[in-house]
């Protein structure tokens, strides 16, 4: 990842090449142009120093000096505060809370289908794809309201959402059947330099139109 160094220390991110959660953090790093070291790991053969601080191997995992943290939203908000430009949450407390709540709703809603689709086959997977497709189809108007998802400027909502949308065809969702406004938003975000920088070679294979 080509970045501009900010500050004296360089953070380290332990990441998985194909994992949705890791991609969310990589997109945030690229959006903010943060200088960092990204270490791709195999959970079947993890580094010993990582196990010492994270025995359950919850990835992504951030190291900054002697601090170790994990949890996607913990890392996300830490990075936005540690590297405040460009800001991905506004200064107004009410708007910040609304956007954080939007991410919470995504975690409880659309993102909850990721495990169901990735870790099941047959009827359970088919049912999860169908339910997710129905929810996304009903959400078309949300993507037409503002330039970004429910906000005039790019925010942490977008850095969480766009890697999810990138995976939909790979998951088996019928992409052309989704609302035009959703697909227009997604295509615009997919074409950004930051998003292209964030994608691993494995993730590039999830779509063939970019």
TrEMBL record:
Superkingdom classification of source: Bacteria
GST N-terminal domain boundaries: 9-87
GO CC annotation: cytoplasm
Domain GST C-terminal: 92-208
Cross-referenced Gene3D superfamilies: 1.20.1050.10, Glutaredoxin
UniProt xrefs under PANTHER family: GLUTATHIONE S-TRANSFERASE OMEGA (PTHR43968:SF6), PTHR43968
Entry protein name: Stringent starvation protein A
Species name: Marinicella pacifica
């Amino acid at each position: 990842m080509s970045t501009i160094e900010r500050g004296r220390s360089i953070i380290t991110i332990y990441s998985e090449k194909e994992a949705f959660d890791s991609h969310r953090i990589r997109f945030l790093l690229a959006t903010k142009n943060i200088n960092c070291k990204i270490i791709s790991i195999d959970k079947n053969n993890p580094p010993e120093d990582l196990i010492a601080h994270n025995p359950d191997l919850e990835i992504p995992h951030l190291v900054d000096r002697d601090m170790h943290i994990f949890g996607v939203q913990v890392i996300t908000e830490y990075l936005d505060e540690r590297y405040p430009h460009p800001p991905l949450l506004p200064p107004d407390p009410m708007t910040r809370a609304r956007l954080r709540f939007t991410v919470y709703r995504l975690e409880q809603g659309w993102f909850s289908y990721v495990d169901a689709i990735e870790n099941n086959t047959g009827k359970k997977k088919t049912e999860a794809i169908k339910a997710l497709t129905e929810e996304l189809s009903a959400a078309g108007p949300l993507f037409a309201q503002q330039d970004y998802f429910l906000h005039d400027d790019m925010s942490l909502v977008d850095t969480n959402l766009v890697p999810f949308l990138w995976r939909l065809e790979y998951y088996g969702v019928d992409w052309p059947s989704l609302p035009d406004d959703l697909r227009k938003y997604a295509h615009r975000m997919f074409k950004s330099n930051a998003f292209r920088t964030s994608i691993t070679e494995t993730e590039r294979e999830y779509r063939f139109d970019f």
